[in-house]
Design goal:
The protein has 553 residues and is α/β, with parallel strands linked by helices. It is 59% helix and 6% strand. The strands form 3 sheets. A 4-stranded mixed β-sheet has the order 1-2-4-3. A 3-stranded antiparallel β-sheet has the order 7-8-9. Strands 5-6 form a two-stranded parallel ribbon. β8 and β9 form a beta hairpin. α2 crosses α8. The longest helix has 44 residues. The N and C termini lie far apart (67 Å).
């Protein structure tokens, strides 16, 4: 165990360097007071003669000492009372997952380290230890009681996709280096250094935007810069010691588990961006995201020959069996994922309701298509009105006797085909981008029940997403999506097609029970090149009547 001891020794050395920065700051704060005490003692003992110069010096030093002590006390009070950042997680009480707690405690015994004080889940493909010994975090620690600040071990945070995709043995091997980190974390110097750094970070956040705490923020940032390098090296030492210690536990399985981590991350990313995001934008959140990642990865293993063999693992016991009620935990993690990656209220409501996977095609896919088709129809009406009345110099807008155009695929084909289609496509893309941005701005207002911004740390609460998933889409991408949605609506209304769900690509059009992924290629030919013949051929093959109006929302 020489290497782990070396890593732990390096971590303790760096922790002492961080604490020396704290001691140096305390010494600087006490220096004027010490000088004032020396001057006063010298006067009382007769070693410093009386005189106007000495009296003036003693008075100035005394005033400076009081001012410095007051400022130091203010900085210390803010650092001590500021609430450190807390990762949003789903707490897992022990009675809801006794087998999972037993697995973690057995793992800690094998590694000869303290067991984590509690377990929580995060809707991401990562796992770590989090210190929640600050008094402000007492309500978020979990159900395991802590008998004191000194004996409170960190909380083990596990990525929820791991529990559903990984097998029990793989999860144990994956968590081994994470749980091993509780050993170095229990050292008093390392724990004190971490509390000091986290307190400074929290003080900077508290002082931000508050002129009255400008000096506190400056002092905290100065101390952070002074100990940043030492803190980073301390964490590297802790990670090195934990990794080396964990090599004694299921080393072979750890290699397999790391492969599963990369696969789970790929499936989770596709599921969030392609499947969950369309539902979130409509005020619906899939309530079984973790179960969905298993379906997504199984589909990936079916399509990708590089992933062959991964689906055969599904015959083994999944790690989610360690939970008493995995469905309840999955729903809580899914709601938290919606808050983190999209933004929204903390609780379900009329404008923010869950949707099951069996309901997804009808309640999300079909509605999404019809909303986009209606938006495209509105924008086309505006463009046609401007073209008709603007050139004649009349007021914009339809005349009183004008018959509104029907929302048909034939109208879209006619307007986007030919040489003039390219210019119109650019204008439609710009107007669609503006329309989508306007609707998104309206959705950000807390106008529905339960959407008021709650009190608390804005880094954990509120409606703004902490980790937005996708950058804004270009106008051409939006136009392609909207034309595709119009065609899908026409196929559903006139050709017997049905909306479906593809676990890797999201909304899908099913014709005769088979997915028609070739539609996008024909739409791209229309939007980018103004060539509508491929789309017309596709419509004829499927049996879509392009002249029939589609049903809009």
């Amino acid at each position: 165990m020489a290497v782990p001891e070396t890593g732990a020794h390096a971590a303790r050395t760096r922790a002492l360097a961080v604490l020396r920065v704290r001691s140096a700051a305390l010494a600087v704060a006490l220096l004027p007071a010490a000088a004032a005490v020396v001057l006063l003692t010298g006067r009382l003992t007769g070693h410093i003669p009386d005189g106007s110069g000495w009296e003036t010096l003693r008075g100035a030093v005394g005033v400076l000492a009081v001012a410095v002590l007051l400022l130091a006390a203010a900085v210390a009070a803010v650092v001590a009372r500021a609430r450190p950042a807390l990762s949003p997680t789903v707490p897992i009480p022990e009675e809801t997952a006794p087998d999972l707690y037993r697995l973690v405690r057995d793992l800690a015994d094998r590694l000869d380290v303290p067991a984590p004080s509690a377990i929580a889940l995060t809707p991401d493909c990562d796992s770590w230890l989090e210190d929640r010994t600050h008094p402000a975090h007492a309500s978020a620690r979990g159900v395991l009681p802590s008998r004191g600040r000194a004996c409170a071990a960190p909380v083990l945070v596990i990525g929820s996709p791991f529990l559903w995709w990984m097998r029990v043995a793989e999860l144990r091997a994956l968590l081994a280096p994470v749980v091993a980190g509780t050993g170095p974390s229990a050292h008093p110097d390392i724990a004190a250094a971490r509390r000091f750094v986290r307190g400074l970070d929290a003080a900077v956040a508290v002082a931000a935007g508050r002129p009255a705490l400008a000096f506190v923020g400056w002092a905290a940032r100065l101390l952070l810069r002074s100990c940043r390098g030492h803190a980073a090296e301390m964490e590297r030492g802790v990670a090195a010691a934990a990794s080396e210690r964990a090599q004694t536990v299921d080393y072979g399985l750890r290699i397999v588990a790391q492969e599963q981590v990369g696969l789970a991350y790929a499936g989770w990313d596709r599921l969030l961006n392609r499947v969950a995001l369309p539902a979130w934008r409509m005020g619906r959140w899939p309530s079984r995201l973790d179960a969905g990642v298993v379906s997504a990865l199984t589909e990936l293993s079916r399509r990708d020959r590089l992933a062959e063999g991964f689906a055969s693992r599904l015959g083994e016991r999944p790690a989610c069996d360690l939970l008493e009620e995995p469905g309840v935990i999955d729903e809580a993690a899914s709601l938290l994922a919606a808050r983190l990656f999209h933004g929204g209220p903390q609780e379900p409501g009329p404008g923010w309701s869950p949707v099951a996977w069996s309901q997804y095609p009808e309640e999300v896919v079909d509605r999404k298509w019809r909303l986009e088709a209606a938006r495209l129809h509105r924008v086309l009406d505006v463009v046609d009105d401007l073209a008709s009345y603007g050139a004649a110099g009349a007021l914009t807008g339809p005349g009183p006797d004008a018959t509104p155009a029907a929302p048909t695929v034939a109208r879209v084909l006619e307007r986007l085909s030919g040489p003039a289609g390219s210019g119109l496509g650019e204008e439609l893309g710009v107007r669609l981008s503006a329309e989508v941005a306007r609707e998104a701005a309206l959705e950000e207002r807390p106008e529905y029940p339960g959407a008021a911004v709650p009190a608390g740390d804005p880094r954990c609460d509120g409606l703004a997403p902490l980790f937005p998933l996708q950058p804004p889409r270009s106008g051409r991408e939006l136009l392609t999506d909207h034309v595709t949605a119009m065609v899908c609506c026409a196929a559903v209304d006139t050709a017997g097609a049905v909306p479906g769900l593809d676990w890797l690509d999201g909304p899908a059009l099913l014709v005769g029970g088979a997915r028609r992924a070739d539609l996008v290629r024909t739409v791209l030919s229309l939007v980018e090149e103004g060539d509508g013949e491929p789309l017309r051929a596709w419509l004829g093959e499927v049996g879509v009547r392009s002249e029939k109006p589609v049903r809009l929302v």
